[in-house]
Write a structure and sequence with these properties.
The chain is an alpha+beta fold. It folds into 2 domains: 1-71, Beta Complex (Beta-clip-like), CATH 2.170.270; 72-124. The chain is built from 2 helices and 4 strands. The protein has helices at residues 79-89, 93-122, and strands spanning 31-32, 38-45, 49-56, 67-68. Strand 2 and strand 3 form a beta hairpin. Helix 1 packs across helix 2. The longest helix is centred in the C-terminal third of the chain and has 30 residues, at 93-122. The termini are far apart. The mean pLDDT is 78.
Length: 124
Amino acid sequence: MGLKDCGTFLDIPPEFGSTKKYRATLGHKINHSFRPNAIFATIDTARFGVVSSLRTIRRVSKDEEFLVSYNYPFGRAPPWYREVYREAARTDPIKAAAVRKWDQEEEDKVRGDDRDLLDGIMGA
């Protein structure tokens, strides 16, 4: 079972963002793109066991930045990710449908919270 299968996310606290303070992996230095040239993968090493790694999915040119899609679940995604996802949805019908679904789920949740609040006030 790989790290992805465990639901593990690489989240390095800001104070360890510098490679002078944290070098166990450089995965936290890989930027996001909805048009990635690499993916996160796992590799079983003799010394550290199963660790996160990076694998290219197409030829990468010299001086080209490695990019991966973070694939955050929209409901747990940070605000910046939601914003760029919505931007990408303008030209991607699949992402646009997902955004409509998430917006509807959020609206339904708010309506449910409002009903719960009203029931509490009315003593239902």
